[in-house]
Amino acid sequence: MNEPKKKNPWLEVFRRLKKNRLAMLGLVVVLLLIGTSVFAPVIAPYSYEDQDLLAAFESPSKAHWFGTDEFGRDIFSRIVYGSRISLQVGLVAVSFSIMIGGFLGALAGYYGGRIDNVIMRIMDVLFSVPQLLLAISVAASLGPGLFNLMIAVGISSVPQYARLVRASVLSIREQEFIEAARSIGAKDLKIIFRHILPNCMAPIIVQGTLGVAFAILTAAGLSFIGLGIQPPIPEWGAMLSGGREYIRDHSYMTMFPGMAIMITILALNFLGDGLRDALDPKLKN
Amino acid sequence: MFKYIFKRALMLVPVLIGVTFIVFTMLYITPGDPARMVLGEQAPQESVDQLRQDMGLNDPFLVQFGRYVYKAVFHGDIGRSYITKRPVVQEILAAFPVTLKLSAMAMIIAMVIGIPCGIVSAIKQYSLFDNLVTIFAMIGISMPVFWLGILLILLFSVRLGWVPPSGFDSFSTMILPAVTLGAQSIAIITRMTRSSMLEVVRQDYIRTVRAKGQKERIVIWKHALGNALIPVVTISGIQFGILLGGAVLTELIFSIPGVGRLMVESIKMRDFPVVQGGVLFIAVAFCVVNLLVDLIYAWLDPRIKAQYVS
User: Fold this and answer.
1) What phi and psi values does residue B202 have, to the nearest 5 degrees?
2) CA-wise closest residue to B106 among B166, B189, B169, B192
3) Contact B22 A262 (CB under 8 A)
């Protein structure tokens, strides 16, 4: 991979990204978060579901850094385990929407004409339902559960990626190397997957990073409503929602999950913005 | 102009049919038998079967969809609530003005704060004010609406006691929910105004205006702002739709009797016709808002209108 003579374009991107302090901060936080979710059992001092009613509603202390909830469960441990859920939802939902939306967008952009028209009008319809509402609507129909939550959040972002990929494909389709590939008899699908899509990666990566942030936020919102993950699995939005009843006397119960969500989203947004600048310096501002 | 308005309104029809299709499909795939939901758990199987027949639930999917659209368009009937047995339209119409009012207030707050902040931020690029605005905008975008709402209640209702924590009848009870809902839009509109303004002031015609010695104030307000606001209008339209959708969470936190809370309560009671009715209403409202935005857009930028009129 690392041939010394040939400049790796991704290294070049990383070099530019390194100059952006906020983006690097975002990257570090995201990496920490991934580490936290992978090593959750090692980091969390308690289990996320063991109840200890004698220790309920304890304010933050040395024994319980973020305090305990109404069942005496350690909030810090639940937030640590909750990172697994949030990252999982974020990554799976975004992969889902990139796969579906990207595929539809590529078809629409590559073939144009009628296929383009049909696909994009369907996307317009999906676009005309506010995203959170679309996710709520799908989640309500599918019922609660982690997998359904991912699908609901994923579907609501499909049109975005379809539009994005279509626009990129349109700009690449007419270039000479595509014509060259076609002239040596490459099949359409091969041209799309081998030649066109790899060249639209930059906007997809940027949108995907910001999309993970959005997906986590939406998933937390759905859980807050009660449409997402069922207890006792710890999910930040659901924890916030649970703590809302006790806001008068135990505000820390809502403070820490809220902070966890915000820091995650902030980090992903910093990283996404930084990636956009690094991948395409022309787009700055 | 009328021709343009007519053409643009006509384009709404397929979108609305599409939205109805989505909503109907959601209802269709929802697990559980609607006839059973109407009659309750204890009802004998024969009466459920009879009702299924009467409701046309045994017909093919497309026939049912056709009937749904027909009833919706010609009778304003999109089903009845399983729980209250009242028509869904009535249930939603009772709650809809509240949601609309909340979203409109949030939108006004977002524009009144966002646009000036964006302009000043762009004029004084890289100043302390600009940096502060940029940071606040980033935080605003990353802040979960429901958490912001809880924090505001905690600060202004629980600690300071300035405003009641719930309700939606007077200005003092409306201000917290509107700020909560609008916060993200403030951030987005600020960023959009800033970047659009920066883009415009770099253009040649602005340099020309400056070169002829025009006062900076007039350069900005008279020459730059009009063009800079065009993308802001677009994004504001999109934001309004997001606000209508986002109102669900805000209404839940502040116990506001709008469509959002109605939907969430209906989800809990598995009253799906009301849930999907809410989605339909908000989506239609979103489409109408987008139509209005497009018309404003055409009024601001004659080039767009020309595409349709020619």
Assistant:
1) -85, -10
2) B189
3) no
Q: How far is A224 from chain B (nearest CA, A)?
A: 8
Model pLDDT for residues B109-130, shown as the tens digit of each residue: 999 999 999 999 998 888 999 9
Average pLDDT over residues B51-59: 79
The whole-number pLDDT of residue B29 equals 83
Average pLDDT, chain A: 86
CA distance A118 to A114: 6
The total of other beta-carbon atoms located within 10 Å of residue A252's CB is: 18
Chain B hits for A237, CB-CB cut-off 8 Å, are 144, 146
Does the CB of B72 have a partner CB in chain A at under 8 Å?
Answer: no
B276–A133 C-beta distance less than 8 A: no
Can you tell me the ipTM of this complex?
0.83
Contact B272 A140 (CB under 8 A): yes
Q: For CA atoms A117, A118, A124, A127, give the dihedral sign.
A: negative
> Cβ separation of A266 and B139 shorter than 8 Å?
yes
**For B88-112, how does the pLDDT look when each residue is reduced to its tens digit (9 = 90+)?**
899 899 999 999 999 999 999 999 9
Cβ of residue B290 closer than 8 Å to a chain A Cβ: yes
d(CA B202, CA B191): 17
Least CB-CB distance to A227: which of B154, B244, B267?
B267
Q: Quick check: A2 pLDDT over 80?
A: no
pTM: 0.86
Question: A230: Cβ–Cβ under 8 A, 6 or more apart, which residues?
Answer: A144, A145
What proportions of chain B, in percent to the nearest 5, are helix, strand and coil? 80, 0, 20
Cβ neighbours of residue B280 closer than 8 Å, sequence gap 6 or more = B19, B20, B23, B78
Q: Token pair of B144, please?
A: 């979960």
Q: Give the three-state DSSP class for B126.
A: coil
Q: Which of A275-284, B8-17, B186-195, B200-209 has the lowest mean pLDDT?
A: A275-284
**Helix, strand, coil shares, percent, chain A, to 5:** 75, 0, 25
- Asked if B241 has any chain A CB less than 8 Å from its own CB, the reply is yes
Q: Is the pLDDT of residue A246 over 50?
A: yes
